[in-house]
Every structure is written in structure tokens, then in C-alpha cells.
Design brief:
alpha/beta, single chain, binds NADP nicotinamide-adenine-dinucleotide phosphate, three-stranded mixed β-sheet, 12 strands, seven-stranded parallel β-sheet, 13 helices, Rossmann fold
Length: 298
């Protein structure tokens, strides 16, 4: 049986769809099982657990062969990368070892590193170190930025208000990957012996600036959409002001600064050559998909 921690998130919901029919069954760990079950996320079982509380994880891991960790504390209302992406994964890895889990698939992030300016990328790097040092058979998937998330955030507002907000100049080429494609690679990582003890960077086929993303959204909506830029200077000030009062929002603003000012590209050539059966989605494919209305957004 497979356990997805984070099975209610953007990627987790897609993973549940991809893995739902597998022999052995699927269990989703969530803090709110009743809410997840009523949302019909497709998993066969929901179990209550909080990765900050290690004692809640043992019962969830009974009978589990493969654990997929798609948790994060990054995002609006999130408990933060240190609490969830690092310490939460520490608890989940420890509990998985104790429960005799065979394989642990960790969702990290492309560019994770010890000196990255963002706490999320540092926490992911340290979680990678933890899983590498564990007794578990492990695989790490490092996706670039989720396409549906940003298409939903920008596209949703563009549809309702006619305005698309671009954080910063919007001229930095950024790699976006579809959660559908990431889910296929996670499926491979959960089952393929060849990925045991390996990390795989996963990205989409295009590096797009946010100005280009807005152009594509405008074309897909077929209505005029005005682009409104939030200046980097205002974002830098906002990140400092929000750090104490709303650290989750401060982290989001900092992510916007990093995405506008650092190298966010990825070359998918080697990935496509190695996995020709997984066709990497382009932004236009995702925008054309009617599911975006329910799958995208924050
Ligand atoms: N979004 C991106 O662009 C991106 C890019 C690269 C990598 N990733 C990684 O891919 C994975 C999935 O990202 P996502 O955007 O799909 O995440 P998401 O939508 O923000 O979902 C976060 C998930 O974490 C779970 N979670 C948070 N705190 C928890 C806690 N204390 N105990 C148990 N579960 C907790 C939530 O479960 P409940 O609320 O149901 O408890 C939820 O299912 C993450 O590891 C993320 O770091 C994301």
C-alpha cells in the first residue's frame, strides 16, 4: 500500500488520481480527513496525522510499503519550511524507518541547496540529506515551479478582474512544470528499482517569462488583460515589513523576488530523452484543459 503525505495538495490530488487504481491501495495522510474525503480526492483511504507530531504517524504507516512525501509548509497559511519541509520530513522519515517502509519518495525542489536565499530550498536540501542518511530505500524528485499553480493564480484574477499581476519585472525566464507530469515521475520513483538511491530533476519543456505567461493567458481567454507590475523595491520593503506579522506572506514575497532575479531555467532535453513516454506539457496545453478551473489556483 502507498501512503501520500500531502495527498490533498496541488500535486497530491493529481498523484491520488494517478495512483488510485493501483493494487495494494492508496492512503492519504492529512490533518483534516473528513474535509479531504468530502472533497472526493480519489484516494481509497484517508488517515488523520500531523507531521509535526511523530506519534500521529505510526498508526498511519501500518501496512505501508511506499511513502510519498509531498508535504510543504510554504504557502499562504503554511506553518513554514522549517516546521514542515524539514522537521516534518524528519518525523516522517523516522516513523517510516520504524514502521518498516520499503521506499520513501521525497518531493524536494529544483535548485535546493544549503546556501539558497530561500528557507524553503535550504529546508528541502536538509530533508534530502536526512533521507539519504536513513535506512530507507529512497528516491528524490526535484520539480521546478508548478505551472497550474501560477496559471491559476494569474489566470483566475485575469478572468475575473481583467488584470494580471506580475511580481517584479516579469522578464526572467522561468521553468514551469505541470503537476500532471510531476505525478507521472513520482509514480516512476515509487515503483522503479532504477530510481532507488537517486535524485531526479523534473521540469517542463519551456522557460517562460511572466510577461509571456500573461500573453498566453490573454490569448487563451480571448479578452483584453492588463498587466500590472508590482515593483521589486515595493516587494523588498513588503518582505521586511511582513516578516514579523505575516511570515507566510513574507516568504511568498521573497519567492517573487527570487523568481524575478535569479536563474530559474531548466533544460529538459536529458529528461525527455530518458523518459520518452512522458510527454512534457506546455503552458498552452494546460491553459486549453478545461480542468484548469478546478485544478489550478492557490
Ligand atoms: N508548488 C510548487 O511550485 C512546487 C515546486 C517544486 C516542488 N514542490 C513540492 O511539491 C510538493 C507538493 O507541493 P504542492 O504545491 O502540491 O503543496 P500544497 O498544495 O501546498 O499542499 C501542501 C500539503 O502539505 C500538507 N501538510 C502541510 N502541513 C502539514 C502537516 N503539519 N501535517 C501533515 N500534512 C501537512 C497538506 O495536507 P493537509 O492540509 O491536508 O493536512 C497539503 O496536502 C511539496 O513537497 C512542495 O514543496 C512544489
Amino acid at each position: 500500500m502507498i501512503l501520500i503525505a500531502g495527498g490533498t495538495g496541488h500535486l497530491g490530488r493529481e498523484l491520488s488520481r494517478v495512483l488510485a487504481g493501483r493494487a495494494g491501495g492508496l492512503r492519504v495522510l492529512t490533518r483534516e480527513p473528513a474535509k479531504a474525503a468530502s472533497a472526493g480526492h480519489g484516494a481509497t483511504e484517508f488517515v488523520k496525522g500531523d507531521v509535526r507530531d511523530r506519534s500521529s504517524l505510526g498508526p498511519a504507516l501500518v501496512g505501508i510499503d511506499v511513502v510519498i512525501s509531498a508535504i510543504t509548509g510554504f504557502g499562504p497559511g503554511g506553518q513554514g519550511p522549517r516546521a514542515i519541509d524539514l522537521e516534518g520530513n524528519r518525523n516522517l522519515i523516522g516513523a517510516s524507518e520504524a514502521a518498516g517502509v520499503r521506499r520513501f519518495v521525497l518531493l524536494s525542489i529544483h535548485g535546493a541547496g544549503p546556501d539558497h536565499p530561500m528557507e524553503l530550498y535550504r529546508a528541502k536540501y536538509r530533508a534530502e540529506e536526512l533521507v539519504r542518511g536513513s535506512r530507507l530505500d529512497w528516491a528524490i524528485i526535484r520539480p521546478t515551479v508548478f505551472m497550474e499553480l501560477w496559471a491559476g493564480i494569474i489566470g483566475g484574477a485575469a478572468r475575473t478582474t481583467g488584470t494580471a499581476t506580475i511580481f517584479g519585472r516579469g522578464k526572467n525566464p522561468t521553468n514551469f512544470v505541470s503537476v500532471r507530469d510531476v505525478a507521472r515521475f513520482v509514480e516512476v520513483a515509487a515503483s522503479d528499482a532504477g530510481l532507488g538511491g537517486a535524485a531526479l530533476d523534473v521540469g517542463g519543456p519551456e522557460n517562460l517569462t511572466f510577461i509571456e505567461v500573461v500573453d498566453s493567458i490573454r490569448a487563451s481567454i480571448g479578452l483584453p488583460v492588463r498587466a500590472r507590475h508590482v515593483p521589486l523595491s515595493a516587494m523588498r520593503l513588503g518582505a521586511i515589513v511582513m516578516r514579523r506579522v505575516k511570515p507566510d506572506i513574507a516568504r511568498l514575497i521573497q519567492a517573487g523576488i527570487v523568481m524575478d532575479t535569479t536563474d530559474m531555467r531548466f533544460d529538459s532535453t536529458a529528461l525527455q530523452r530518458r523518459y520518452p513516454n512522458i510527454r512534457l506539457s506546455r503552458l498552452v496545453d494546460i491553459l486549453a484543459d478545461a480542468r484548469l478551473g478546478t485544478n489550478g489556483g492557490g
